[in-house]
């Protein structure tokens, strides 16, 4: 029965991803136009990013400009790597892992940006020292409403930064390890056996991802009211959107390909076709995000007011409310 089943499967569906020249040869007019348009989009994304880097380098002070350059590069880098993966299917392992390693650094840089908007680590600690932070946030503890509020301290601040930084370091280390194992034939995403390395490395990376997102959510949920004038909410939303599209969407498509839901289409196997669809969708999505982030970060914002200014403003508002209430009662 197994031999009969194998005889009905196109041999191309069991082969490795095709070479770049084979991809070009099998393209029809529509495929050629599609590939050309997506390549154009990824090139525009990269050019806009490079121009944005020059603008940020000239207009913003250090170290904020280096942080913003890192964050702005998330969508263009992912789009560029997706373009390489689309044209060279056998390089998808390297392009995906390059994008993931870059985004792991971006996760930490988003936390650094929120801190730098207050003036740096020392100013942040001075401003929020002793204040209690809500830690029942996603993705770890959004349902644990009974968790107590934790006072901000230097130790708490260090743990938040380390929680985000560990992902940037360990993700890169595990990526290098996965590539080494892949070259030796020991790492295969389609191998879901308990003895396979992918079934151990990928879930561990997932746990590291969740741990790294928790400190960002804690800082954002407790400080975003102070940063609304700097458009921190849409900036954070763009970072979250890139996370969902580059990690969750890709994982779902890979699962559908492994399950056979995404069928084989010679010269692409099911897994190679799923990767190709993922790369194409990623280019279009990252192109749109590049345009939006360019608009958000290219604007010049007023300097964030100090804590004393906020206290004076709140005191004046309260005094006006009290005065209005007294005059009304008279």
Automatic annotation (TrEMBL):
<feature type="transmembrane region" description="Helical">
    <location>
        <begin position="277"/>
        <end position="297"/>
    </location>
</feature>
<feature type="transmembrane region" description="Helical">
    <location>
        <begin position="203"/>
        <end position="224"/>
    </location>
</feature>
<feature type="transmembrane region" description="Helical">
    <location>
        <begin position="69"/>
        <end position="90"/>
    </location>
</feature>
<protein>
    <submittedName>
        <fullName>Organic solute transporter subunit alpha-like</fullName>
    </submittedName>
</protein>
<feature type="transmembrane region" description="Helical">
    <location>
        <begin position="236"/>
        <end position="257"/>
    </location>
</feature>
<dbReference type="GO" id="GO:0016020">
    <property type="term" value="C:membrane"/>
</dbReference>
<feature type="transmembrane region" description="Helical">
    <location>
        <begin position="158"/>
        <end position="183"/>
    </location>
</feature>
<dbReference type="Pfam" id="PF03619">
    <property type="entry name" value="Solute_trans_a"/>
</dbReference>
<keyword id="KW-0472">Membrane</keyword>
<feature type="transmembrane region" description="Helical">
    <location>
        <begin position="29"/>
        <end position="49"/>
    </location>
</feature>
<dbReference type="InterPro" id="IPR005178">
    <property type="entry name" value="Ostalpha/TMEM184C"/>
</dbReference>
<keyword id="KW-1133">Transmembrane helix</keyword>
<keyword id="KW-0812">Transmembrane</keyword>
């Amino acid at each position: 029965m197994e031999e009969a089943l194998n005889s009905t499967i196109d041999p191309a569906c069991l082969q490795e991803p095709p070479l770049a020249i084979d991809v070009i040869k099998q393209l029809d007019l529509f495929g050629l136009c599609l590939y050309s348009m997506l390549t154009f989009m990824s090139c525009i994304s990269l050019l806009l990013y490079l121009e944005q880097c020059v603008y940020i380098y000239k207009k913003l002070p250090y170290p904020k400009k280096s942080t913003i350059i890192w964050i702005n590069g998330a969508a263009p880098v992912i789009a560029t790597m997706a373009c390489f993966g689309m044209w060279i299917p056998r390089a998808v392992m390297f392009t995906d892992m390059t994008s993931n390693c870059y985004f792991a650094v971006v996760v930490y840089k988003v936390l650094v940006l929120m801190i730098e908007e207050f003036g740096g680590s020392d100013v942040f600690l001075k401003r929020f020292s002793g204040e209690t932070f809500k830690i029942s946030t996603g993705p770890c503890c959004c349902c644990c409403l009974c968790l107590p509020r934790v006072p901000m301290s230097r130790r708490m601040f260090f743990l938040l930064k380390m929680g985000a930084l560990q992902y940037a370091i360990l993700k890169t280390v595990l990526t290098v390890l996965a590539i080494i194992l892949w070259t030796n034939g020991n790492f295969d995403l389609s191998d879901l056996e308990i003895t396979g390395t992918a079934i151990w490395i990928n879930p561990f990376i997932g746990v590291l991802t969740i741990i790294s997102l928790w400190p960002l959510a804690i800082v954002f949920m407790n400080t975003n009211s102070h940063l609304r004038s700097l458009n921190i909410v849409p900036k954070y939303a763009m970072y979250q959107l890139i996370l969902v599209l580059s990690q969750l969407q890709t994982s779902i498509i890979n699962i559908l390909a492994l399950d056979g839901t995404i069928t084989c289409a010679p010269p692409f196997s099911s897994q190679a076709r799923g990767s190709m669809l993922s790369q194409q969708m990623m280019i279009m999505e990252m192109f749109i995000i590049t345009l939006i982030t360019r608009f958000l970060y290219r604007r010049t914002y007023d300097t964030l007011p100090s804590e004393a200014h906020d206290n004076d403003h709140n005191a004046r508002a309260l005094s006006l409310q009290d005065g209005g209430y007294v005059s009304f009662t008279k």
